[in-house]
Amino acid sequence: MPSMEEAEAVQDAETGQSYIDGYLKKLDSKMRRSRKRMRALKRRMPGNRLLDIGSNIGCLVAAGAEQGLDATGVEINPVLAQEAQRRYPAGRFIVGAFETVTLPHAAFDGVYCSEVIEHVVDTNAFLEGVARVMVPGGAFYLTTPALREYAKGGDPGSWRDFGAPDHKLYFSPGNIRQMLGKHGFGDVRSSFSLGRGLKLFARRL
To answer: What would the mean pLDDT of 143-172 be, rounded to a whole number?
Structure first.
């Protein structure tokens, strides 16, 4: 497992530009998905303060702002954060790893975290931080690849995005619920996913 410094160092300009190029090829579909997911999260939020962890080029923050939310994005890659701020100047984007940026306690009514938790170095510290910045009763929307994608045998070197510095840990429906419960989340509900990954909502207890 790499250190936090090593994980941050991977997020260079080339990596950021590759994400931008990929997103721009399907920006319309990304925005449609972001708006749909934002509506689902907003229904569960007790207030209007939203945090997107791993905000990429800002689609979810933009969707939240469209729906009247006070939206903030945190993005570890500076190039992606700059692109998000350029595209959505009314949004608020913070550069840095979520585990290292300073955010107030109980500052958000909803947190969105899509395809991020599998990249983090310390899952316990990460989820502890998510719980800390959420109000009691706040809604957490989490997506991540499923362990079942990688547990079918064969050569691990051929598995999609397997291993650091890309993906570091994988989750099953059972162990992600256990992890969430350990850090003060309950009412965990899986949502239907067309893909192979996990998609769920949880409540900050």
So the answer is: 74
pTM: 0.92
42-65 tens-digit pLDDT: 999 999 999 999 999 999 999 999
Query: Residue 195 pLDDT more than 70?
Result: no
Strand duo 108-114 + 92-95: pairing = unpaired
Q: Is the peptide bond before 2 cis (omega within 30 degrees of 0)?
A: no
pLDDT at 76: 95
Cα–Cα distance, 170 to 159 (Å, whole number) = 12
What secondary structure letter does DSSP report for 146? B
CATH of residue 113's domain is: 3.40.50.150
Burial class, 115, CB count within 10 angstroms (exposed 0-12 / middle 13-18 / buried 19+) = middle
* CA diameter of the chain: 48
- Report the domain count for the chain: 1
pLDDT, position 151: 66
201 φ/ψ angles, rounded to the nearest 5 degrees: -115, 145
- Angle formed at CA 98 by CA 93 and CA 101, multiple of 5 degrees: 75
Q: Which residues of 9-42 are buried (b: 16+ CB within 10 A; e: fewer)?
A: eebeeeebeebbeebeeeeeebbeebbebbeebb
Domain span at residue 190 reads 4-204
